[in-house]
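Now for a typical sample entry:
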Amino acid sequence: MTTLTSTPGGATIRHPAPPSATTGSRTPRQGGTILAVPALIWYAIFMIGPVIAIFVIAALHWPGMLQPVSFAGLDNVRTVFDDPVFWDAVNNTAVQLAVALPIMIVCAYMLGYYVAQKPPGHRVIRYLLFIPGLISTPAKAMVFYAALSPDGLVNGGLQAVGLGSLTDAWLASPSTALACLIALDIWSGIGFTAVLFAARLDSVPDELGEAAQLDGAGHWRTMWRVHFPVIRDYVGVVTMLQFLWTLFGSAQNVLLLTQGGPGSSSTTLSFLVYQKAFIAADLGYSQTVGVVLFLAGLVGLLAIRRVFRQNY
């Protein structure tokens, strides 16, 4: 649509009308909503659906996949909370997260900062750090089994240097089995996390570090007082990812190396879910622990988000 105006000389000037605000604003929004529908359907079926199923199965007495199902109500909750193995799993999981997560994040950030400074051979270092992420979980477990078995590399090295009294059956000892699993978590996660931090630190302007060094700050203060606040929110995201991986993914390492033993000394919550579902065939108990695991993950994510939120 155009408008006509007349000049003092009698000439007529055409002015095109501005585009309609409603037309220009509605179309992109409607198009974006339509494009999001398949993703929303996928999310509802394969993400929200299983979460609802966990809560439903937790209220059932289901002794095996092909067995009759009956309503249990809160009986599974009482059974779980009265089981000492469950509390051992809670304690082991808490120790695993409290030890592995801080060590992994702090060491990975320091390694990532070093790589981001582009020292000689930094490209090769990035590849070397990424190698644990390219190895399958069974292969990692076999490496640790070969190192920690009674006749493995660790005991052989201790005997070679005259410290044979310190040798132990590391994976079969109640005092060291969980520590071996934590060491595996740290080794397998620290390199991959360091590469992520290095990639993020590469986007920090060099002028920030140069200005700090001109003011007399060394690398340590520059790393923690200048670069860390800039990528604080990204550190929070990576911490949440590693928290979830450690919380929910520890079952595979336990299954491959210790089977939760000796006793329940290395049983974690995620392994207890597997053990009760596929070995003990008690699906109601298993998914009740799954509900506890889900709530623990939700609370942990909210806590990490609060700790690492930006202060400005």
User: Anything to note?
Assistant: The first helix runs from residue 21 to 58.
